[in-house]
Design a protein that fits this description.
single chain, 262 residues, mainly alpha, Serine Threonine Protein Phosphatase 5, Tetratricopeptide repeat, 2 domains, 11 helices
């Protein structure tokens, strides 16, 4: 039978445990907030740096592509559609400036597609956004023809994502067959890039293809210990966090659907 002393001790221990959990939760939130602030600061600074370099020599194709990339990164993190559209248009202009000087620049077509995508998101739902989706598709296809391994098979990865996420015909360009084709292509080209395996795992789970989903998840697990080393620094911090969340969610979904670990 518990004595007054033991009950008091238990209550004290429980209170200390609760305080410890609350302290850990608050600490985790503080770390996450600081991380988000660091990423936001880096993104803004990189945009300003790339803009300055581009404006100093607008005839330089590399400068145009780098500014278009920075514009996409900033547009993606915008908190409202007005800002997203304004920034994306700068990225579009920089990409088109680069293409005016080198029509066969794979990176310029690639970042034109990325910024078209941000502008479409800002303007959706609308006829203009619908038309932009087709522009996104076209530019990624051109980029894939010119430089398919750019950005770790970025053209194939993003085409797969476009076909996977978009509604199907007649509403949009969505296609299971095309999503599979391009996701597989990205994983073949750059199997060690985590997002290429995550995309495959997510798609196979949606399509209830257990063996293929398990294969992609196992490939991802082999890569995972090296992610902090292979993708270090604040410039990769946002993606590392997103990959971690998607990995956890995909593993949890697999376990729920198939009642077992991959």
């Amino acid at each position: 039978m518990a004595t007054f002393y033991s009950l008091t001790s238990l209550r004290t221990a429980s209170s200390m445990t609760l305080l410890g959990i609350l302290s850990l939760s608050l600490w985790s939130r503080a770390v996450a907030a600081e991380s988000a602030t660091n990423v936001a600061t880096w993104t803004i600074n990189e945009f300003m740096r790339a803009q300055k370099v581009f404006l100093a020599d607008t005839n330089n194709v590399t400068n145009g592509c780098q500014f278009a990339r920075a514009a996409f990164e900033l547009a993606e993190s915008a908190t409202n559609d007005t800002s997203r559209a304004k920034i994306a248009r700068q990225g579009i202009a920089a990409s088109q400036s680069a293409l005016a000087r080198d029509a066969k620049s794979g990176p310029a077509h690639y970042y034109l597609a990325m910024n078209f995508g941000e502008l479409a998101q800002a303007e959706a739902p609308s006829l203009a956004a619908y038309r932009l989706v087709h522009e996104v598709e076209h530019e990624f296809k051109v980029a894939a023809e010119l430089d398919e391994k750019f950005d770790r098979a970025g053209p194939a990865r993003n085409l797969g994502a476009l076909y996977f996420q978009a509604p199907g015909w007649p509403l949009s360009v969505g296609s299971k067959k095309k999503a599979r084709e391009w996701f597989v292509r990205a994983a073949v080209l750059e199997p060690d890039y985590p997002e290429n395996q995550i995309n495959l795992a997510e798609a196979h789970l949606r399509w209830r293809e257990r063996a293929e989903a398990e294969k992609a998840l196992k490939a991802l697990e082999r890569l995972w210990p090296a992610v902090p080393t292979n993708f270090p620094g604040v410039e990769w911090e946002k993606l590392r966090t997103e990959w971690g969340q998607r990995r956890a969610e995909t593993r949890a979904s697999f376990k729920k659907i198939y009642q077992g670990e991959p």
